[in-house]
Every structure is written in C-alpha cells, then in structure tokens.
Amino acid sequence: MTLAEVDGSAWAELEAAAADPQSAFRYLNLCSVDAGGRPQARMVVLRRVDAARRVLEIHTDVRSPKWQEISANPLVTILGFGPQPKVQLRLQGSAELNGPASECATEAWSLLPPSTRSTYMGGPPGDDIGEQPASEGKAADADGQAFFGVVIFRAETLDWFQLRHADNRRAVFAYDHLGGLASSRWVNP
Under DSSP, is residue 42 helix (H, G, I), strand (E, B) or coil? Predict the structure, then answer.
C-alpha cells in the first residue's frame, strides 16, 4: 500500500465504524488530561466522521469529567485498534465542545433513539447512586437533553501502525486546519 492508500483506508475504516456497531473502531479511547496533569482515558462511541475535514463526532454528558477536562485543555488523543488487519490508529488534535443549547447538539439529539437519550437522564457521571432506585433518578431528570453535549474532534495527526508477523509497518500523517493532507511519511515502527 502507498501512503495515500493507507491514509484513505484509515479514514474509510473510521467512516464505516460510525455506522456499524460491530466495527472495532466504533469504540475508541479518548484521552485527555485532568486538572492534576494526569492522563485520563475512557471509551467513547464514534457517532459521525467527516473524512474530508478529518473530523470525528462523539456524544457525552456535559457533567462528565471529560467535558471539564476538554474545557480546560482541548488537546486530546483518540486511540483505536482493529484486530483485522491488526491496525492501530492514534489521532491527535483538538476538541470543540458543543453544549445542550448549541445547534450541533440539538441536531444530534433529534437523531438519537429513545434508548440512547435515556442514558443522559439521572445524576452526573461518577456520582454515587446511593439507595435511590434507578427509575426515581430518571424521573427526577426526565429531560436528558439538558445534559447532552457533542464533542467535535479535529485531527491534526494520524499515527497508523500495522502489527504483522514480520516487518511491522508505521506511517505518520499531518493535516492542515481544513483537513487537507499536509505531509505523510513512513517511520520505523
């Protein structure tokens, strides 16, 4: 594969994953830095991809620690691994937060099924549940949309790594602010 083919296939995999819950790249690690300077990683669901602009969309609760971390430092890393053909994608870039009142979040919310909407009801992520039955918490915060946010991640670099029986391969790509390919090169794995 050429560098252009590697770049194209990586973004095609991500685009396909946004629509396929069975794809390995549907669930990615989002890595940010907390207020104490410690790295934080958590799994997120890839909701939409714009390969031409090098943009990923992720949904989250605006009360979550990741929302606060990204508010303070928008530089994040996204990491995924596909077991076939044993490819790791490590994307670095910046995240833009779109809160509940934003046009972006309103539109994304309108497309969510009721089962997904219900995940934004209840108390803030990480808070103790206590003795309160789950149904009471949901009734108290029936409008989950008030807690729904969209993270728009813009990739600045892609580090592509393929694990093989022999001769592992690795390539690094850089993108301009519009998503255009600025540089690409093969590097030692």
Answer: strand
